[in-house]
Amino acid sequence: MDFKRIILWSIIGTGISSISTELIAIREFLSQFHGNEITISVVLFSWLLLTGIGSLLAKLVHRPSVLLYTLLLLVLATLPLGQVVLIRLLRDMFFLHGVSPGFYVILVYVSLISAPYCVITGFVLPYAQKVINASGYSFESGELYMTDNIGDILGGALFSFVLVYWFTPFRIVALCSLCLMGSILGILIRMKQRAWLVSSLVVFSCFLFVAVNKTIELDTLRGQFGLIERYVESPYGRIVITREGRQHTFWESGAPLYSDADVIRAEEKVHYPLCQRNRIKHVLLISGGLGETLHELSKYHPERVDYVELDPKLTSVAVDLGVIQPLDGLRIINTDGRLFLKQTNQKYDCIIVDLPDPDTFQLNRFFTSEFFSLVKGRLKKNGVFSTGMQYSTNFMSKIRKKKLSTLYQTAKLHFKHVLIIPGGEAFFLCSDGGLSSDIPQRLRELSINTSY
Predict the structure, then answer these.
(1) Which single residue of 12, 307, 351, 381 has CA 20 to 30 Å from 213?
(2) Same domain, 124 and 172
(3) Measuring CA to CA, which residue among 409, 415, 451 is closest to residue 435?
(4) What would the pLDDT profile of 63-116 be if each residue is shown by its tens digit?
């Protein structure tokens, strides 16, 4: 293989590696900051700015060196692994554990960690053109960026359709660096740089050993999560199950979802809406089916329970751990809750939505007037719809008051009766039939026993 072709493959390898590294960085920062779309925009802004700075720095170089180019490629091939480790380990050094940092602090933190890789990536591409031209080959800027785009497209496609489904970040980094590694070895062999060749092989061996070692990868997560029982990456985020005594806590993208020992919350979200009617046959549960939820549902002896959860890996792990309890008539449906409501013709006595507050565009879709209208169309006559939002029993900020008020007024547009029950969170019960706030009395009438 001639020299120019090896350099072209190194450019393609840079594109594959850089895109996958960028996507991994976004997922890592989202997990660290429990982020929404603003976190994604911060990462993209920093990435574009810093790679642009790297490209400007390349203009200052007038005597390109093939060996320097090769060493820069070596850094690009191995640095993404170090970047992932730094993102996971440095957060608690920069911020107090449990504190939610502000926008500008996150911007500085993201920029500092991303800077080394981004600047080198931006520098390498125009530098590659200078190396090819200095070697006596014709290579224009348009050809350079076309070649890089091939790598970007390949990297994006590989990550989105293959790697994110089957591999953890450490192993994705290793797989996406293989093209760069091959290019580096090809250049060093052609240059007959035996010392650098041997050194590169040693570096690659250490790099691959760390990348495929599951124990090392888990160690980088323990600072954030503690004792990890199970760890799975899915297209929707990072699923981590931790154990403390007999209690399992499910985390998704760094935020706690459910605890299988949280009986109080399970009783509240189930009994508040279901006890409103004397007979419950069909129930739809959109998220929140882990832990004690299904056990509490079983006390009403429903004929059918449709449990909709977006992430199939989440329910799969929960079934393996016995966190989803067997229930007659239970159907686990892995799809988007809103899409399911649009497509199903089933009518329900009760629809329970157990999702976090609407802090992202993904979640916001379940708190809109259009969604409430869709829910009402899937309820039986006098059926009950339940959703919730966080609040503070001692003090509520103006923003929190506006959120609760907006949700109440939106629900009133579609239901004759809207009852707010203050529990662990503010539970909104919505129905065209009557609603009772005397939950203990209703439970006694139905002979339903509870722990709290």
Answers:
(1) 12
(2) yes
(3) 415
(4) 889 999 999 999 999 999 999 999 998 887 887 776 778 888 889 999 999 999
